[in-house]
Sequence to fold (160 residues):
Amino acid sequence: MARAHETTNAVECCAGDETMGQLLPHLLEQLETCQKSLTGYLESKRLCFPRFFFISDPVLLEILGQSSDPSSIQPHLLSLFDAVDFDEKKTDLIVAMCSDKGRRIAFEKGVQCSGGVELWLNNLLQTVRSTIKNVIALQSQCFVDPEYDFIAGFVHTCGQ
Fold:
């Protein structure tokens, strides 16, 4: 920095001696090593939670970096799930899923957002699947009843 302050010509400052010629290839090599390590780390996280393959590296880094505060990554959850609702009192508890039409389905048991983000997102995925399975099972039981009015019942039941 002192040499850059003394020599105002940038080309002359950088190419004036062999220091930069020797230093830059070494720095480039270290940068490539860091990039490979980062790519490997993100790949391991994507293998733990495959929906991470659908988001960019910067978004994934932000999610992983802020995993201790689940409400701060809530905007990014829309890239992974349609919509989820957090508990109003406990900001680390997901209690329901929502559709873009405004339908809300509460989970039987909330999903605690603690530990590794890929772990609780897998837990959330299992809870969503289980909830949808239960809703479909309850609706299918209604069809057995000959008195069941499909049109009236459909209004009160979430549809897929």
Notes: DSSP finds seven helices and three strands in the chain. The beta strands are 84-86, 93-98, 104-112.
